[in-house]
TrEMBL record:
Specifically methylates guanosine-37 in various tRNAs. InterPro entries: Alpha/beta_knot_MTases (IPR029028), tRNA_m1G_MeTrfase_C_sf (IPR023148), tRNA_m1G_MeTrfase_TrmD (IPR002649), tRNA_m1G_MTases_N (IPR029026), tRNA_MeTrfase_TRMD/TRM10 (IPR016009). NCBIfam families: PRK00026.1 (NF000648), trmD (TIGR00088). It is found in: Cytoplasm. Belongs to the RNA methyltransferase TrmD family. Gene3D superfamilies: 3.40.1280.10, tRNA(m1g37)methyltransferase, domain 2. It comes from [Clostridium] hylemonae DSM 15053. Residues 1-226 form the tRNA methyltransferase TRMD/TRM10-type domain. Homodimer. This is tRNA (guanine-N(1)-)-methyltransferase.
Amino acid sequence: MQFYIMTLFPDMVMNGLSTSITGRAMEKELLQIEAVNIRDYAFNKHNSVDDYPYGGGAGMLMQAEPVFQAYSAIKEKAGRTPRVVYMSPQGRTFDQEMAEEFAKEEELVLLCGHYEGIDERVLEEIVTDYVSIGDYVLTGGELPAMVVVDTVSRLVPGVLHNDVSAEFDSFQDSLLEYPQYSRPEIWHGKQVPPVLLSGHHANVEKWRREQSVIRTARNRPDLLEKAELDEKEKELARAILGSEYKDHIL
Ligand code: ADE
């Protein structure tokens, strides 16, 4: 999969994404990640890409033309009109479902704003999706773009070593992941749950599923609305849920 990240801080995104799993996937050519420096498309002699907002107000805005020129270069390279995701706190909140949808694309353009934002007219022309990573305001769209690239990348076949692991993650089933343990068997006086040492595969699976239900009921009861639970699992969840959720969700 090919990602283009339109940014004023290409080093920031490339340094982060060239590390660890996404970095290895780039080396294996499962992912292509290109940071496109919007400043390279500045059209004045000072190389500036920002200006004052009409109507006054605090801060500066990124101008339409450099953003449009950077986009046009990407479009030309891709040979078609790509999906363009503008990272903004005003967007739809990013989640696993959206990541799965993005993972179906052959290429994805992520547009990172800075200063007080970007001239609305270029957004109207090029942006297909407005995406927020949560209800808080960051200094720019780079970290959000990295969050999206990382999340989508691990859904690309071959990026994770173990192809089953993306399937069993938190949220895949609208349930949180069960707790995991590795050696030693006893650490700080704490014993690994005996069922995990039993070698009884079906019992292990049953225990893990129960733990997922318990964790979700405790930590993210809102997720249970989408989870498919059998009667026994619902009973387990009900025993944990406060009354405000019990009637409403299960
Ligand atoms: N830019 C600044 N804050 C953001 C957020 N929460 N999500 C996406 N882009 C942003």
